[in-house]
Amino acid sequence: MSRTATYKPALAWFAAIGSAWVFVLVALGAFTTTIGAGMAFADWPLSNGSVNPHGWLTEIDKFAEHSHRISGTLMGLITIILAVWLHRSESRAWLRRLGWWALAIVIFQGLLGGTRVLFDPVNLPGFDMSLGQMLRIPHGVLAQVYVCVLVAIAAGLSRPWVANTLGPASPCVRRLGWWCVALLFLQLTVAATMRHNYAGMAIPTFPYSTPEGTLLPANWDFRVALQFTHRVLAGVIGLAILTYSHFLWREKSLAPVLRGASFLLVGLIGLQITLGAQIIWTGRSITMTTGHVVVGALTLATVFLIVFLTRRDSMEPTHP
Fold it and tell me: Degrees (nearest 5) of the Cα angle 113, 13, 179?
């Protein structure tokens, strides 16, 4: 039987802070990958056999990787507290389940990241990447799922959700939102595959695919195909976000904060395309590349949050 939601300020703020902190973890992971520091330490779970390895505060590659590990551990502790807190104090079963799902994902992510390090020397016949290098791709993709789960928990605990002041959304707006989420998740999967196959500069010109100004690449291989697919999807997502934002803004039944979020979506997608272009124009600048990864995750999280909030009425009872 469904239970009526009760606003719990401390738990709500803790969940919100946790869902914000995860972007620190994403940023550090992106920075580590961008500078090629994923194997700064060849052991795990310790770093060179220590929790405070020599040189991690003075050598950039060691700092990036060890900071990523520390932030991941802290994120794990935050998720443990959140899951237990939800289990002990939250009346809604779906939120308690989300808490345990978040914990399961963060544990699996930690194991996946550690396995990636330990299996880095294992070569597979017929593949350019080692087994450990391949595991970087699901590690990056699952991180996006984890972000969305944390966002969903924070949304369900928020005051507007509990007070039911968000307003209803039409089926059209809901469908458009889910399509945007699906496209963004597909794009981030392609991006993770491209990034870990070192295909970020497979097409070294933008917006055209050749110095001669043609849209299609002159020569094709796996890396070029990944890069071109990423660009095509960026265009499709740009149009999808603009369409969704238009209908979201026109949805008069929704709360002003949700309708106003349409402008945030347009800004995020514009920033993301600009950062993507800058990666090519700057020859894969560390700042631009890391920013592109972080803004991509933030865009997915923002769209997912809006879509999730517009589905409030279908997930909560109207009456106690």
Answer: 60
